[in-house]
Amino acid sequence: MFSYRHAFHAGNHADVLKHTILLAVLRHMTQKDALNVFDTHAGAGLYRLDGDYAQTSAEAADGFLKLVASKPPQGFTPALQDYVEMVASFNAANQWKVYPGSPFIIQSLLSGRDKLKLWEMHPTDTKTLTANVAQLEAGRQVTILREDGFEGLKKFLPPPSRRALVLCDPSYEVKHDYARVPAMVADALLRFATGTYAVWYPIIPRPEAHDLPKKLKTLANKAGKSWLHATLTVKSSKLTQDAEGEVVRPGLPASGMFLINPPHTLKAALKDALPQMVELLKQDQNASSSLESGG
Ligand code: SAM
């Protein structure tokens, strides 16, 4: 357990999808009264795009770095422009050395009245996250909990402000995560029905991954809540062979975000942004996106 390190994946196409959506959600939710944000699987908080981990996998090269290098003649759609500018705010002009993870994206949008709780269980990533957060002037509005995020969320719901966003972004390195996500959301909806819930999941050829958004949709519909489901596919999930006949795994081909009680502004923002993500990040002719809503 805990072999997953987000540093290998920071800035990949899944982060582009997840963090563009996270930012668009927060832009809306931070406009009003005090907000609580709960990030159940936080990671290390900040990543080096020029560091050893990032270069080993080079996933950002096919994700965020490809996006910014593309310079589309018509410009980025507003949600993607906002995302690129947010990452730029962590870097010197025209340099892409640092990539902010969800804790720092969230924190950068909060005002003094808002609170952020972060769960992370990997010993090294908890240490790095703690050191990174300690550099923040507003560090006191952030609490880091080295415990299970699925379980830990329970004691904070409902939050006193009655306004909250829960981001659930597990690594899915253990199969059990696919069952724990809907169980956590079901429990959270009973405790706090009006919260906004955002779940990231990988789209890979295994039944649990396929079933996860269906389970979340059923939960939302049963609770009479609105929902939004966005996916981004950059390439085929099929295994291929290299010149020596060795089987080549494609790496993560696609991912999705499922939101319950999303801001009403989100669908319109993604309607333009998702096709542009496909256009700029596609790796083969199987690239596509989808956007569905209900409730
Ligand atoms: N949300 C981060 C971002 O967008 O920058 C990335 C998170 S990464 C996909 C998932 C993280 O969850 C890993 O750092 C892993 O160590 C951690 N983790 C795994 N199981 C956990 C659990 N039960 N509770 C809290 N954190 C966990």
Set down the secondary structure blueprint:
Blueprint: H1 13-29, E1 36-39, E2 46-48, H2 52-57, H3 64-70, H4 78-88, E3 98-100, H5 102-109, E4 115-119, H6 123-134, E5 142-145, H7 149-152, E6 164-168, H8 177-191, E7 196-203, H9 207-222, E8 227-233, E9 240-241, E10 247-248, E11 254-260, H10 266-281, E12 288-294
Parallel strand pairs: 1-4, 1-6, 4-5, 6-7
Antiparallel strand pairs: 2-3, 7-11, 8-11, 8-12, 9-10
Bound molecules: S-adenosylmethionine.
Give your account of this protein's structure.
This is Ribosomal RNA large subunit methyltransferase J. One of its GO terms (biological process) is rRNA base methylation. The active site is at residue 169. It catalyses: adenosine(2030) in 23S rRNA + S-adenosyl-L-methionine = N(6)-methyladenosine(2030) in 23S rRNA + S-adenosyl-L-homocysteine + H(+). By secondary structure, the chain is an alpha/beta fold. It has a single domain (6-238, 247-294), classed as Rossmann fold. The chain is 38% helix and 19% strand. It has 10 helices and 12 strands. Strands 5-4-1-6-7-11-8-12 form an 8-stranded mixed sheet, with helices on both faces. Helix 1 (13-29) crosses helix 4 (78-88), helix 1 (13-29) packs antiparallel against helix 10 and helix 8 (177-191) runs parallel beside helix 9 (207-222). S-adenosylmethionine (SAM) binds at residues 2, 4, 6, 18, 41-43, 101-102, 119-122, 125, 148-150, 169-171.
